[in-house]
Design a protein that fits this description.
The protein is mainly alpha-helical. About 45% of the residues lie in helices and about 5% in strands. This is 40S ribosomal protein S15.
């Protein structure tokens, strides 16, 4: 086939939150991410996380640390009704 007829591969979808790329969000601290969030979430971050939320972050870090490089971590329950999902929660690799 001529080069003109070869279809270009579709690029992967880029994820953004309020104009910030996912890679940049992963590098940010919780306080920096809090500045991008709505007022209710900013207040929650300023006042501190509850024990449930700290335990959730520990579980996520543990499952991410135990998985080999390039693979997805083991599934763990991330449901807390009032908790907003941060970039740390969504990125598996």
């Amino acid at each position: 086939m001529p080069e003109e007829e070869v279809k270009k591969r579709r690029p992967f979808k880029k994820y953004f939150y309020r104009g910030v790329d996912l890679d940049q969000l992963l590098d940010m601290s919780t306080e920096q991410i809090g500045e991008l969030m709505p007022a209710r979430i900013r207040r929650r971050i300023k006042r501190g996380l509850r024990r449930k939320h700290v335990a959730l972050l520990k579980r996520l870090r543990k499952s991410k640390k135990e998985c080999p490089f390039g693979e997805k971590p083991a599934v763990c329950c991330v449901y807390l009704g009032e908790r907003r999902r941060l970039s740390k929660h969504i990125c598996g690799t």
